[in-house]
Amino acid sequence: MSRAERQQLLVRGETYAALDESGDMGGGHGGPPEGLFVRDARHLSRWQLTLDGAVPEVLSPLDGERPARCVLVPRGGRQEPPAHTLFREQALVEGGFTEILRLVSNRPVPQRLRLELTADADFSDQFELRADLRTYAKPGAVRSREARPDGVRFDYRRGDWESATEVSATPAPDAVIHTGTGARRLVWSLALEPHAECELRLRVTALPHGGERAPGSGTAEEPVRATAAAGAGVEEAVRRTARVEVEFDGSVRQPVTAEAGVDGPARQTATAGTEFDGPARQTATAEVEFDGPVRQADRPNVERQTAEDQPASVQAEFASAAHHAASAQAEFTDSDGQTDTTEAEFAAGLPLPDWPELAAACTRGLADLASLQVPAEGPDGEALRVPAAGVPWFLALLGRDALLTSLFALPYRPGLAAATLPALAAVQATADRGGAVAQPGKIVHEVRHGELAHFGQVPYGRYYGSVDATPLFLVLLGAYTEQTGDLALARRLEPHARAALTWMLDHGGLTSRGYLVYRADEGGLANQNWKDSPGAICSAEGERPSGPVTAAAAQGYAYDALRRTARLARSVWADEPYAAQLTRAAADLRDRFQRDFWMERSGFPALALDGEGRQYDALASDAGHLLWSGLLDKEYGETVGRRLLAEDFFSGWGVRTLAAGQRAYHPLSRHRGSVWPHDNALIALGLARYGLHDEARTVATALVEAAATDGFRLPAVLAGYPRGSHPAPVPCPHACLRESRSAAAPLALLTAIGGA
């Protein structure tokens, strides 16, 4: 079983946790990484539990429920059953993670055991963790750790960027130990009475950049001040050394000095003279001497003592912290129960088909959609929740993904469209910005909140490298108005819709070139249609176009956008001349497309045209999108629809992105032979539009049977291997494990077979 298959994902809003089968997080790079992630940053990179110094054995692996549960026991032989059992329960809150550990004695005699939990936060950006071998310099970055009465705090600072992670526990650990690696180990010495049990509760709170920060910034001096203050009132002071670890990342060769002020007999200074050069991480350990109390001198690596070892005033602070942690846990329990109810309500009332497997896939998809929603704002600053693209890589607003998800769900959950449209209108481009590929009226491709986007090291903070999000915005606005009869949103967003159309006609290229076109963005996306990987747009031999690219699917979206917006102009905005202009533009585009794209020899449309108008002749699934948008006339549409179900296209699990047998085909490529459920959902809708209902049901059946192999959840993408060669769908590497378009795809299948 692969690491991805063993991994469990917990998702809630902008927060997700990826854990192994025992409930641990081991960090790592590549895909998919473990940890706790909030707003594109990893706020926990290690979370590893041991009992009496050993990793426990998994008796029952972590399930995917809410909360997630597993059962662990100490390792031992067959002769003696486990002395105790650990029941582990984990769940998410918005911006955090909670855990309940319940230890149950299995013996009739008292026991003592040592439970340790090692925690660390590396604050890696999502883009650092991808398996693309890229590295990013972080000049001036500083990490620090601070022991707290009830746990530990990790801080990260780089220029004006600050983030932190707080770990608190009830009861408080007996010690917080320096591991020598930057991680901290929380330690409890526990007494278990015969057949009794005890319980520990932990809470991890992420404080991402821009969020509300707890008092104290966690700078290098704070651990020293906290320890010195803790000694107030103790009769005998002992000189000792505290180890404060501060990590620096940088690209300037210079000595680094950190000064730690101590309120006490003297001011101490910690100087790290380590020189560094380049992006590699350097660690400077400062030895800080000060006068202060030590009650457990035989434990030099212990950064704090138990509450019982402290003066009465400090014990009161410990009690207050414990009460706060318990209150927070109770608050989480209530809010998590509410989230479960929300998921159930989100899936309730769906008109399910008389097809149990499709009904199960729809229900599973709606539950996933309920968790894959992230906060956004509308044009007037109103709070919204919109579909995120997917986890682990894209828990963020991506224009194309949110629009297609909302379109699939529209007949059943129109609220998704009602949130997505104003959220995208709020971040619609209003000016030219070359680095972000922004032009007035263009709809955003991607919105990120991470450190690398903040410092401009990746362009995706607010990135507009999509040729098709803008027409899809208009398609959804028109479809939403027709589906719901809600004219108010169409009136409110009229200026945004007109700006989007102006972009299509001017910057997009419809007027000057006759089509929507894009150019490769150096530093961003080479391809800016839905097949956005390098090499996805190609000839049958694999040759890539140069210069301006005219992708076929985007022209279908443009045609649909022109027609739907013409109807809005006529029926809602009362602008007949504008409606007539758009109607003519749509008809001209249809005629032009069938003339320029149709390949007589293949009986199929080209995948794209290059800057010289040459056809790129790969046989690709994008032709199915043309059916969905209605761009092809009836004869061509029926020919294309039947061709997509031929053996070289149809794997048995769905239609491949590129037909097998071409030189460019690769079954594990993202866009040159794999099978995407959302792509197939669009194809099924298109087949039904052209009256090919048997073919639409064939596609739907394949996807539903693929979903049935994994708890009725459709993955983001499958390998293109034929069904006869392997009894189950083969996953594609580096794909999202949950994706909003795939979650909504069963709803589109329900529509395609006559559900709406």
UniProtKB/TrEMBL annotation:
Family annotation (InterPro entries): 6-hairpin_glycosidase_sf, 6hp_glycosidase-like_sf, GDE_N_bis, MGH1-like_GH
Biased amino acid composition, Low complexity: 315-332
Residues of the signal peptide: none
MF-aspect GO terms: transaminase activity
Residue ranges annotated for the Putative glycogen debranching enzyme N-terminal domain, each copy included: 10-203
One Pfam assignment: GDE_N_bis
Residue ranges of every copy of the Mannosylglycerate hydrolase MGH1-like glycoside hydrolase domain listed in the record: 549-710
Segments for region (Disordered): 255-341
Superkingdom field: Bacteria
Ranges of compositional bias, category Basic and acidic residues: 296-307
Keywords, comma-separated and alphabetical: Aminotransferase, Transferase
Protein name: Aminotransferase
Organism of origin: Streptomyces physcomitrii
